[in-house]
Write a structure and sequence with these properties.
Length: about 280
């Protein structure tokens, strides 16, 4: 399947989502050899198209927008965004192996991602509400755009987005609820009352309440190291076990065939004679 605009031609590589109002695809430029990928949101529902066009008109008026292209194609209205391999926050965030400052830093990165998303608030709210938040390996946050447009509400404002973001922050910080977690207590109290009205206000509370970044204890750092590198360490351990198993098998077969272990003769017989004198005399 191919979507063609006045600027580019996008060839679909795979389907990410299929719903009543829209589908989402991974696509590449038909004449591009550098492997860049894009998220295609193809909307076919007329009411959803009307809602999306209202939101899209605002995107063009926002500086540094992530929107790559927008056009009509057949009966569909198509939006194109950059594609990045998903690492969902809900799957990759493991608060138990992180220190409180590290958890607060991830929360700060989420806030900064919202503040710099260059999206109209109805679409930003949809990303937050539908879990399109991703955790990079370095702790950064980025959005993906695999969304169900049918649930978009054009009336959503910054206040709605801030309240939703505060709820997500609350869940993140709750993993350190038993520690001296001032940021969790403050954000929870105001979030439960829907008191936040802007991202700036939420950001200020998080930064003021956040603990100074300190070096984690040696045990915490060791635990974090093993957690982050578990696959590599288990791989190394597996091959070490294979090599040791092969060595043990060779020794066993040598003992069965020759009655002893030939390689050990190098060490046993070496010191029986020194010069012309035998040590066995």
């Amino acid at each position: 399947m191919t979507f063609e605009s006045q600027k580019s031609s996008y060839t679909v590589v795979s389907t990410l989502f299929s719903g009543e109002a829209n589908c989402c695809y991974v696509a590449r430029l038909s004449d591009d050899m550098d492997g860049r990928s894009f998220t295609i949101i193809a909307v076919r529902d007329h009411d959803a198209i009307r809602t999306l066009m209202e939101a899209e008109s605002k995107i063009h008026n926002i500086a540094n927008s992530q929107l790559v292209d927008a056009f009509s194609y057949g009966n569909d209205y198509v939006l194109v965004f950059p594609y990045r391999q998903e690492r969902p926050l809900r799957s990759f965030f493991v608060g138990d192996v992180l220190s409180l400052p590290e958890v607060e830093e991830i929360g700060t990165n989420l806030l900064l991602a919202c503040m710099t998303a260059s999206l109209p608030f109805p679409m930003l709210y949809l990303l937050l509400d539908q879990g399109q938040i991703n955790l990079a390996k370095d702790g950064g946050i980025f959005f993906s755009y695999v969304i169900d447009i049918k649930e978009m509400d054009i009336r959503k404002t910054e206040r709605d987005c801030t309240v939703k973001c505060a709820q997500i922050l609350q869940a993140i910080l709750a993993t350190k609820e038993n520690e001296k977690n001032i940021s969790y207590e403050l954000i929870s109290r105001k979030s439960d009352n829907n008191s936040y009205s802007s991202f700036t206000e939420l950001y200020r509370d998080l930064r003021i309440a956040a603990m100074p970044v300190e070096k984690s204890g040696i045990l915490v750092r060791i635990k974090s190291f093993f957690k982050r590198n578990a696959d590599l360490l288990f791989g190394i351990l597996f091959w070490v076990c294979v090599i040791l198993g092969i060595i043990a098998l060779i020794i066993l077969l040598s003992h069965i065939v020759w009655g002893d272990i030939p390689i050990l003769r190098l060490f046993i017989n070496t010191f029986k004679n020194i010069g012309t004198e035998s040590l066995l005399q």
